[in-house]
Structures are given as structure tokens and as C-alpha cells.
């Protein structure tokens, strides 16, 4: 009987001009967005193929661009879907009420359950038609794109179908509440709007936050659209369908036979409660199954991170989030953002370790001698200032611990009272920091390093030498090295990626035996004989070393370098440029340098073999005069049009001119960074020497693509940082030409909609004549 009712309703649906109008409008909308995305990309792809003989692909995913981004199909159709569905479902049941056929159904032996399920089954079949329309374009995209990521396409199709079925279940229930279709349509709009916004309401209350977040339909298809299917999201859509189909059944049963209102209310509550209970239980960590359908498994932690998590065993890890009311970005740690914090940061890790527990501490405090807040709020003490700031954030001050209270638990002054997480495991603790950038939360590299730190008794130690006016790892000046080493607020700093940092003065201290890397960063005064002997003993014993120097200081470093068979030549490399001063070099990264580490940027260069340039504000060339000591490879090389100026270089006057009479020298390419390695004491010794020190300092750090981090990675045998390498997309080529895309546009945007319009018109006219 259910199928008979479904068949009748489906037939009536296609005898309705509304269904035909929605079908044609749906087709045109999808065709418009697909062709609008395809045509410009096909045009530029043709231009690239026809003009660049080395063109190997765009490097970006055409599957994502044509279906997910910008003006693509799914990016737009899901935003407008709520406009279609109420028009489709507004008279599903009200039509029966207005025509009087509902009384015939009530008086027949047909069960109310069969009526409701039959009607919903009919609309599910119509939803399959809409899915079929999308499927035609998914197939077209699969044929248009070489090596298309079909997993994303299938996952997106599933997300669309579940969403439209949830919307139609809502529309079915609203149609049972009123005899007026327009009222039913408006009711559907309102319910969808409420479900879309409820996840942002009352988020400061723990129980209410979890309930409203579960009920929210906003973003439920987000993961599926990008290729990640989870049982949590599927259960949510099934729960919504169950709730509103169940409500419809209760509503029609109440209209068919008298039931006391307390009984009906209890039935509504029972349906709602069971759906929420099952869905809520199924969304707990440990009960969620994941399926990453993407070709590159972009939603799955990399194998090296998974191994770190597996090595944690069954012991729980507690994560305590400390949120300072005065810290930059503190709003992201407030209760209102808790679900966002858990989903964005921790859900990928909960997938592999469900016994992560979370704790939250809110407090207010400022660094000693920091008077900025007191100047902004003159005449107020810290508690009064906190009250005003809390008011600005709509937070109760009572939720925040005072400085005295939080100090009893932990000292956060070394963390500058920033928003920070403390990870605890088997009695060990470590900090996981946030960063003031567009992402804010740590990424997989930093999280993996923190989890590894919980397991290891010793982390790799980098020793920076002092005593000869070297670059400082603690000062914040432009020429210093704190940005890439000890800066806790820098995402790329060594301390945030698995390294321990320390400094020693060789004059009165020995290099620790547990040092993994020693750094001699641009000394300004000559090393004493004692310091040189200690450093030579370290290198002779196979220690890893990083040396950076500057033009004009060759005499200071050459006594150290010559024991390794290399020398820094006198003078400064000159490279004439329209944009920079003559001493500013733009050396290119060599092929050998791309193998330093699994950093995504270097992997991309290595895979496609392309090169990139850095900025070096003043560099001296490096040469090897004894190849019997180390095997040498260049990492950075200057252009062939650069030359070595041996005399005084004037950079603020007329451009210098190459003058061999003054000792200027040309070369096929001066080396500005060298890699040295040899096997000694049953290990490979690794050394890097740079003819410039500024390119790693706080001023130039961001301009140089994080290359300094790969130096440390190579010298640490690539144990840290833990790079989560993701393979480049394979779907970066098109099979279709621009002219072929124009033909597709004509067919999909004009011919097929015209045929559908003719078919619908003929069918409706014949139906009316009958």
C-alpha cells in the first residue's frame, strides 16, 4: 500500500506545473553554475597548453574548483535549496485536505503510517530525480577532468541527497499543519531558518550548547562536500527525517481519531527525545566512523602523525585550554566557540584517539610591568578592568579566575598569558600554543610535535653559541634570530616544532654531549683559540653544525671553515636589479636543496622540478678547496650575471660596474649556502654553511619561504619538524577544450531545458484535456 500511495503521489507531482517548473529551474541553475565555472578555466587552460611547452597542469584541483569553490555547483545550489523545497512540499498533504480526499483515506482501511510513508517515499523519488540531474553534471565533470577526484563527487552527491530529504521531511510536516499551501511554505522556511541558526544560540551554557549544536543543520553537509563522510552527519540527517516524519504521523493520527492533548504531546516528546538521544550518542568520540573519500586523503592525519598517536597507547591525554580575558584572540576560546574549537582542531585526532579529554580554565592576568591596560582604563584596578572587558565580550566575570586563583594551579607568565593549551599524559606535561594569524590554532605539525614531546624523555636540542656578539635567540631586534628559534608566538619557530633551545659561551662552557645541532650565527668578533678548539673537537667528533656569516666578517669565520675544507671569499656578491640595491641577492633553490626535508613547498619543487628564489641582503660566496673532508652540495646559488665585488661596495649611489682591474670576479654561479656531509663514528654528520646571516633574521624571515626550518630538519635527520606531506592533486588537467565547453553550454543551458519545457507543456496540456 505504501508503494501504491507513493506511485499515485509521484504521478500527481508530475501532473503539477510547480514540479515541472522547479525541475527546469533546478536544471538551469546547475547548468549555469557549472558552465560559469568551466568556461573561463577551459579558456585559460587552452592558452597555457598552446603557449607553454613546459606546462604540466595548474597544480590545483579542478574537481574542487568546478564543484565546490566560488560560483560552482555545490557552493551555490545548497544555499538556494531551501527556496525550492517548500514550494515542492507545500501541498503534499494540504492538497488532500482541500480536495476532501483525506476523508476518504481516513475512512479506508489504509493505515495512517502507510499514508505518511507513501507520501514521503514519493518525494524521496522526486529527490532522486534532482540527484540524477546533479549526477549528469558530476559525470560530465568526471569526463571533462583528467583523473577527477570521484570520491569528492560521490560524497557531495550523498550530502545533497540527505539534505534535500531532510528539507522535504520538514516540508511534509508543515504541509500537515495547514490547509493553506502558502502557510505551509512559510512554515518550512521558518523551520529551516531556525535549524540553521539554532547552533549559534545560548552557546555559553554547556548542556544547551551541546543540544543546539546537535540540532543545527548549518554546515552539516560541509564535510561531505569536501569528501569526508561521517556517521555523525548521516545520523543527524536520519534523525531530522525521523523527527518530522514522526511528527507528521502523530499529527494525522490525531486528526483521524481523538487523542487527549497530553498523550499527543508525550508522543511528540518521545519522538524528539529518541532521535536526539540516538543522534547525540552516535556523535560521541569513539562512536563515529569516518570515510575519507578524497584521492589524497586530505581529511586524514598523515601516517607519521597517526603513528605518534598510536604510540600513546590506551592512556588518556588531557587537554586544558587556558583562556586569558586580556589575550589576543581570547574570544575563540570562550564557551560560545567551544564546539568550533573541538571540531576544527581536535576532531581529526579524536578519530584516532577517542580518550582525549578536555578541560577549560578562564582567567584574567597581565604581564608584570605591562601598563597598557591601565592606560586604557585609567583609575581602575585589574579586577575593575576585567569587569569592563568581560562586559564588552558579553561574558560573566564570575566565570574567570583571578590572578591569585590561577597562580595556584599554573604559572602562565612564561607563556605571556596568551591563549594556550597544556597537554598532560602519564604525568608529563607540555604546552601547545596558539598563534596570532588567520588560523590561530596550531596545525598538524605543531600538534604532532607536542604529542611526541609527551612521549620522549629528550627532544632534539639546538645550542646557539654566544660570547662573540652572535645573533641572539632571545632579542626581538631585526637582526636577531628569535623569530625562527624561541618565539613562542611564531608558528614556525623551533620551540613550537619539537626542538629545545639553549645557549652557551664556549669561552667558559663546553658543548653539551646531548646537543643535536650547534649554531654559530654571524659572530662579530674573532673566536678565541679555546672556543675554536672546542668547536673543532665537536665537528671532528661528528657533530651537526649550522654556520651563518656576513660579508666583511670572512676573517672571523674562515679559521673555523677552513678546517672543513671550505672558505668564504672576500668581498660581496653584486646583483644589479631594478627593484633592489646591488647587494640584495635573489639566489635560487637548487635541486639538491629540495631534498632537505618533506616540507610541502620543497616537495612541490622536487616533484615537478621547478625552482624558487629567496632574498639575501648581502652575501659572500662559499668555495670548497679540499673535497677529501666532506661531500659538498650547493643549496642556494646566485644568478650567473652576478659578480664578486672585492673592494668597497657602495649601494646608495650609482650602480656599481664590474671592474676586473680592482679584483672583481665573475662565475657561473656563486654558492651562497652549502651542504656538507660525511660518515663518521657510525653516523652521517650534517653541516650547513651560509654566506649570509640576514636572510634568517627576524626582519627577512617571512620572505624566505621557511627555508631555515628545513635546514634544521635535515640536520636533525628529518625527525623534527614533523611535516604532514599531502600529495599534489592529480586532477589539475582538463580533457575538454574551450570550444568543447561552448558546445556543452549550448546543450546544457539551452537545448535540454527547452526539451524539458516542451515535454512538461505537452504532458500538462494533455492531462488538462483528459
Total DSSP helices? 25
**What is the CATH C-level name of the largest domain?**
Alpha Beta
> Helices and strands: which structural class?
alpha+beta
Give the N-to-C terminal Cα separation: 26 Å
Q: Which fold does the CATH topology of the largest domain refer to?
A: Rossmann fold
Number of domains: 3
Under CATH, the homologous superfamily of the largest domain reads Class I glutamine amidotransferase (GATase) domain
Determine the fraction of residues in helical runs and give it as a percent range.
Answer: 40-55%
Largest sheet entry: 8 strands, mixed
Question: If classified by CATH, what would the architecture of the largest domain be?
Answer: 3-Layer(aba) Sandwich
Count of β-strands: 23
Estimate what percentage of residues fall within beta strands: 5-15%
- Round the Cα radius of gyration to an integer and report it: 33 Å
Name the average pLDDT.
90
Give the strand order, joined by hyphens, for the main sheet: 9-8-10-11-22-21-18-15
The coarse silhouette is: elongated
Unreliable runs: none
GO molecular function, one term: ABC-type transporter activity
GO cellular component, one term: plasma membrane
Protein name: ABC-2 type transport system permease protein
Organism: Chitinophaga terrae
Concise overview:
Helix 21 links the parallel strand 10 and strand 11 (544-548). The two termini are 26 Å apart.
Amino acid at each position: 500500500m505504501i508503494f501504491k500511495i507513493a506511485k499515485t503521489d509521484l504521478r500527481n507531482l508530475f501532473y503539477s506545473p510547480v514540479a515541472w517548473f522547479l525541475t527546469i529551474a533546478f536544471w538551469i541553475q546547475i547548468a549555469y553554475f557549472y558552465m560559469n565555472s568551466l568556461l573561463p578555466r577551459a579558456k585559460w587552460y587552452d592558452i597555457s597548453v598552446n603557449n607553454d611547452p613546459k606546462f604540466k597542469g595548474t597544480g590545483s584541483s579542478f574537481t574542487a574548483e568546478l564543484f565546490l569553490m566560488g560560483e560552482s555547483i555545490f557552493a551555490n545550489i545548497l544555499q538556494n535549496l531551501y527556496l525550492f523545497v517548500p514550494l515542492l512540499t507545500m501541498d503534499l498533504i494540504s492538497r488532500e485536505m482541500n480536495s476532501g480526499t483525506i476523508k476518504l483515506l481516513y475512512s479506508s482501511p489504509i493505515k495512517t503510517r502507510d499514508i505518511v510513508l507513501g507520501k514521503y517515499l514519493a518525494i524521496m523519488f522526486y529527490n532522486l530525480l534532482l540527484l540524477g540531474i546533479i549526477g549528469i553534471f558530476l559525470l560530465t565533470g568526471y569526463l571533462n577532468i583528467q583523473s577527477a577526484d570521484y570520491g569528492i563527487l560521490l560524497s557531495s552527491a550523498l550530502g545533497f541527497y540527505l539534505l534535500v530529504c531532510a528539507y522535504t521531511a520538514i516540508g511534509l510536516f508543515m504541509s500537515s499543519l495547514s490547509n493553506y499551501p502558502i502557510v505551509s511554505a512559510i512554515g518550512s522556511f521558518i523551520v529551516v531558518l531556525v535549524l540553521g541558526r539554532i547552533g549559534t544560540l545560548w552557546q555559553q551554557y554547556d548542556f544547551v550548547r551541546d543540544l543546539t549544536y546537535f540540532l543545527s543543520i548549518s554546515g552539516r553537509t560541509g564535510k561531505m562536500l569536501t569528501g569526508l563522510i561521517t556517521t555523525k552527519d548521516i545520523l543527524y540527517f536520519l534523525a531530522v527525517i525521523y523527527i518530522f516524519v514522526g511528527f507528521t504521523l502523530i499529527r494525522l493520527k490525531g486528526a483521524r481519531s481523538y487523542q487527549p492533548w497530553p498523550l499527543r504531546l508525550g508522543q511528540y516528546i518521545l519522538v524528539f527525545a529518541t532521535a536526539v538521544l540516538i543522534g547525540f550518542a552516535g556523535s560521541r568520540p569513539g562512536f563515529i566512523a569516518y570515510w575519507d573519500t578524497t584521492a589524497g586523503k586530505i581529511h586524514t592525519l598523515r601516517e607519521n602523525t597517526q603513528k605518534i598517536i598510536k604510540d600513546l597507547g590506551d592512556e588518556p591525554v588531557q587537554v586544558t585550554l587556558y583562556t586569558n580575558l586580556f589575550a589576543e584572540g581570547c574570544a575563540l576560546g570562550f564557551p560560545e566557540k567551544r564546539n568550533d574549537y573541538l571540531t576544527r582542531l581536535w576532531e581529526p585526532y579524536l578519530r584516532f584517539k577517542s580518550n582525549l579529554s578536555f578541560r577549560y580554565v578562564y582567567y584574567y592576568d597581565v604581564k608584570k610591568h605591562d601598563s597598557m591596560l591601565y592606560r586604557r582604563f585609567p583609575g581602575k584596578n585589574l579586577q575593575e578592568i576585567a569587569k569592563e572587558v568581560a562586559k564588552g565580550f558579553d561574558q560573566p566575570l564570575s566565570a574567570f579566575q583571578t590572578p591569585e586563583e590561577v597562580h595556584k594551579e599554573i604559572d602562565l607568565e612564561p607563556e605571556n598569558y596568551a591563549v594556550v593549551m597544556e597537554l598532560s599524559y602519564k604525568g608529563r606535561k607540555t604546552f601547545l600554543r596558539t598563534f596570532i594569524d588567520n588560523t590561530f590554532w596550531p596545525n598538524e605539525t605543531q600538534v604532532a610535535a607536542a604529542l611526541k614531546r609527551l612521549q620522549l624523555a629528550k627532544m632534539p636540542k639546538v645550542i646557539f653559541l654566544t660570547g662573540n656578539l652572535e645573533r641572539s635567540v632571545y632579542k626581538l631586534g631585526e637582526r636577531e634570530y628569535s623569530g625562527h628559534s624561541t618565539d613562542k608566538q611564531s608558528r614556525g619557530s623551533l620551540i613550537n616544532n619539537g626542538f629545545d633551545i639553549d645557549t652557551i659561551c664556549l669561552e667558559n662552557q663546553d658543548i653539551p654531549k646531548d646537543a643535536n645541532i650547534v649554531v654559530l650565527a654571524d659572530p662579530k668578533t674573532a673566536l678565541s683559540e679555546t672556543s675554536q678548539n672546542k668547536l673543532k673537537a665537536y665537528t671532528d667528533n661528528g657533530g651537526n653544525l649550522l654556520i651563518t656569516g656576513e660579508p666583511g666578517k670572512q676573517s672571523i669565520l674562515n679559521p673555523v671553515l677552513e678546517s672543513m675544507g671550505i672558505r668564504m671569499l672576500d668581498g660581496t656578491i653584486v646583483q644589479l636589479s631594478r627593484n633592489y640595491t646591488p647587494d640584495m641577492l635573489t639566489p635560487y633553490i637548487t635541486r639538491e636543496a629540495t631534498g632537505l626535508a618533506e616540507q610541502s613547498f620543497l616537495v612541490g619543487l622536487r616533484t615537478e622540478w621547478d625552482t624558487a628564489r629567496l632574498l639575501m641582503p648581502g652575501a659572500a660566496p662559499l668555495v670548497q678547496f679540499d673535497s677529501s673532508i666532506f661531500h659538498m652540495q650547493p643549496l642556494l646559488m646566485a644568478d650567473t650575471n652576478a659578480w664578486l665585488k672585492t673592494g668597497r661596495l657602495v649601494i646608495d649611489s650609482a650602480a656599481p660596474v664590474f671592474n676586473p682591474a680592482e679584483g672583481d670576479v665573475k662565475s657561473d654561479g656563486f654558492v651562497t649556502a652549502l651542504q656538507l656531509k660525511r660518515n663518521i663514528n657510525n653516523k652521517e654528520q650534517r653541516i650547513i654553511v651560509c654566506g649570509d646571516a640576514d636572510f634568517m633574521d627576524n626582519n627577512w624571515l617571512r620572505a624566505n619561504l621557511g627555508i631555515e626550518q628545513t635546514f634544521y630538519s635535515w640536520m636533525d635527520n628529518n625527525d623534527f619538524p614533523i611535516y604532514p606531506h599531502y600529495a599534489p592533486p592529480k586532477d589539475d588537467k582538463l580533457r575538454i577544450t574551450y570550444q568543447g565547453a561552448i558546445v556543452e553550454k549550448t546543450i546544457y543551458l539551452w537545448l535540454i531545458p527547452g526539451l524539458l519545457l516542451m515535454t512538461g507543456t505537452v504532458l500538462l496540456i494533455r492531462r488538462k484535456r483528459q
